[in-house]
Specification:
Radius of gyration: 19 Å
Helix content: 40-55%
Number of helices: 14
Largest sheet: 8 strands, parallel
Strand content: 5-15%
Order of helices and strands: EHEHEHEHEHEHHEEHHHEHEHHH
Number of strands: 10
CATH superfamily of one domain: Ribonucleoside hydrolase-like
CATH architecture of one domain: Alpha-Beta Complex
Strand order of the largest sheet: 4-3-2-1-5-6-7-10
Structural class: alpha/beta
CATH class of one domain: Alpha Beta
Length: 350
């Protein structure tokens, strides 16, 4: 077992599956990330999912559950804490499931810290971690044995926008046995970070047929929103999004799926040298929530951050390596021993 992933001090039976809880706001890159997790780890892991963010969070969780069920995945789904924006779930349901959606069991339950996080070995957070803060406030030891994989950037900014302090966020991240904080090339100030390679997108669609509808649905919704906003308040960055989607309606932002790509490569000992590992004693959030600077200070667990913009100067080479890693995972290349890689290997096994 790679001891950098699951805390080996927690007793596990030799044949016991590890437990992973995933928090998602169900954007297109989240769906790709979750499909990859289930595709690679599904038979070997007990998954729980918390659908979070947006006002109609229960309705969104129902559609998410239906999509999982349609793909014969039956893991429990919870709905979490709502935020202020609506989510157009009916059009997503129609795009992905068509007329068959009414025949699928969409039962979901309200999020509860104990049921959602108890015994979690790994927590993957692809949305603003409101439920993590809620659970931590109720029990500050609840995450003491868990590893957190968190997409930073926007999700951290959302916490600040909702009134949470930097001190609160730092305490939350420090509550985990290990924290892996991931941000994309774009979030840390670089150029484009979308998956647009035709061979890769074709492999994604072939492996996960629902992704073609999900990516087109999501990009169409974003395009409509951006075009309308651009009419009243022109903005160069918004126009870049419009032009990018217009050039490829199938593209997928490499954010949360990039996090999971990194996580799977790390767990399964697949070469992931595009990422530089930074050991820090404290973490600094600038005014935008980007974790691009580090300062010494209070004791803090090791944090791993994707600093790819400082590692690979050649953008083409970076995307070539990224594509290779995605294809390896999608095709399950040389992954015959996944179960052995996930076993907890220590003297406390029972």
């Amino acid at each position: 077992m790679n001891n950098t992933t699951v805390n080996s001090s927690k007793p596990h039976a030799a044949n016991q599956k590890i437990n992973i809880t995933v928090l998602t706001d169900c954007e297109a890159d989240d769906y790709l990330a979750i499909f990859m997790l289930l595709h690679v780890l599904g038979p070997h892991v007990n998954f729980k999912f918390i659908v979070t963010a947006w006002q109609n969070v229960e309705e969104k969780a129902m559609v998410f559950k239906k999509i999982l069920t349609a793909n014969k995945w039956t893991f429990p789904v919870y709905y979490g804490l709502p935020t202020k924006k609506q989510y157009e779930v009916s059009s997503l349901e129609a795009a992905v499931l068509g007329d068959s959606s009414g025949d699928i069991n969409g039962f979901v339950t309200l999020y509860d810290p104990t049921s959602a996080f108890e015994n979690a070995d790994i927590i993957v957070c692809m949305s603003p971690p409101l439920e993590l803060i809620d659970a931590f406030n109720k029990s500050q030891n609840i995450f003491a044995e868990a590893t957190l994989y968190l997409y930073g950037s926007f999700n951290i900014r959302q916490l600040f926008d909702l009134g949470h302090t930097r001190e609160t966020v730092t305490l939350l991240l420090g509550a985990f046995n290990r924290c892996v904080l991931y941000e994309t090339f774009t979030a840390t100030g670089g150029g484009k970070n979308n998956l647009t390679d035709v061979e890769l997108l074709d492999q994604i669609d072939a492996t996960f047929p629902a992704m073609r509808a999900i990516s087109r649905w999501w990009n169409g919704a974003i395009l409509t929103e951006m075009v309308e906003a651009q009419k009243t308040m022109p903005w160069d960055s918004r126009q870049k999004i419009i032009d990018s989607i217009g050039a490829n309606i199938r593209q997928i932002v490499n954010a949360d799926c990039g996090l999971v790509n990194f996580m799977l490569c790390e767990m399964l000992d697949i070469d992931n040298s595009r990422c530089q590992i930074a050991k820090v004693s404290s973490i600094y959030f600038n005014e935008k929530g980007f974790t691009t600077a580090f300062v010494p200070g209070v004791t803090f667990p090791t944090v791993h951050v994707d600093l790819v913009k400082y590692v690979v100067e050649d953008e083409a080479a970076r995307f070539d390596q990224q594509k290779r890693l995605y294809l390896k995972l999608l095709r399950r290349e040389n992954m015959e021993n996944i179960a052995q890689k996930l076993l907890v290997d220590d003297d406390t096994d029972v």
